[in-house]
Design brief:
Helix 5 runs antiparallel to helix 6. The chain is α/β, with parallel strands linked by helices. The radius of gyration is 18 Å and the shape is globular. The strands form 2 sheets. It has a 6-stranded mixed beta sheet with strand order 1-2-3-5-7-10, sandwiched between helices. The chain has a 4-stranded mixed beta sheet with strand order 4-6-8-9.
Length: about 260
């Protein structure tokens, strides 16, 4: 059964699990503020639903999510970014108590990769590509990308991914420890659902406590790191390179960096 109460996502309950599908296929599931708000609302509702014990988050075969809506950000200022405080909504995903499994196929870039990493586990299709390409448009990850990649992969690999903007393949992500498993594109979603059902068969309170305990290893460091990342992300909207990078992206040309 699919619930169509939302405009940008689909909710598919199948107790004891549920699947939430990002549903903006024409723009590769770009993460607009409206989509993020709907996603958080749906996840919180499922977190309260006693018939659901694990949640799968997915997109489509072409893209999990190909990042943020650059057109909406190109002319933004530091003050506008601070006032918008888009990450305050995103932060609520961290508070979901039930296990979250990302089922990723195709592009998971920028905010898409950050959203996948907010989940507890990732099942990837063979076509999945993960990356933080923000450096190519004059900014940096702002929704936890610098922090969660460093936690998952270590400093050297995190630096390469963040500073080059180069995406990595599903097999590379598996070797590096970013994803749990890789499956054919025809079966990756069912593989994620199979994992969700296995976890959903365990005692719910113990699962929630175990998830909280594993996250506790990282949370104190993550909170401090996210504050630094967010401040630096906002400050980049005062640079000429940010405006040049985003407009060059929208105009499909190579940017000219000035270091200002």
């Amino acid at each position: 059964m699919t619930t169509n109460a939302y405009q940008h996502i689909l909710v598919e309950p199948d107790p004891p699990i549920a699947t939430v599908r990002l549903n903006r296929p024409k723009v590769l599931n770009a993460l607009s503020p409206e989509l993020i708000a709907e996603l958080v609302d749906a996840l919180q509702a499922l977190d309260r639903d006693d018939t659901v014990h694990a949640i799968v988050l997915t997109g489509n075969e072409r893209a999990f999510a190909a990042g943020a809506d650059i057109g909406a950000m190109a002319d933004s200022t530091v003050v506008e970014q601070i006032r918008r405080d888009q990450f305050a909504t995103w932060d609520k995903v961290r508070k979901i108590k039930k296990p979250l499994i990302a089922a990723v196929s195709g592009w998971a870039l920028g905010g898409g990769n950050e959203t996948a990493m907010m989940c507890d586990m990732i099942v990837a299709s063979e076509t999945a590509r993960f990356g933080q390409p923000e450096i190519n448009i004059g900014i940096m990850p702002g929704a936890g990308g610098t922090q969660r990649i460093a936690q998952a992969l270590g400093k050297a690999r995190a630096m390469e991914i963040v500073l080059t903007g180069r995406p990595i393949t599903a097999d590379e992500a598996l070797q590096m420890g970013l994803v749990n498993r890789v499956a054919p594109v025809e079966t990756y979603l069912e593989e994620a659902r199979r994992l969700a059902r296995e976890i959903a068969s365990k005692p719910p309170v113990a699962v929630a406590m175990a998830k909280q305990s594993v996250n506790a290893v990282f949370d104190d460091y993550l909170d401090r790191g996210l504050m630094t990342e967010r401040r630096n992300f906002y400050m980049l909207f005062a640079t000429d390179d940010q405006k040049e990078g985003m407009h060059a992206f929208l105009e499909k040309r190579k940017p000219t960096w000035t270091g200002r």
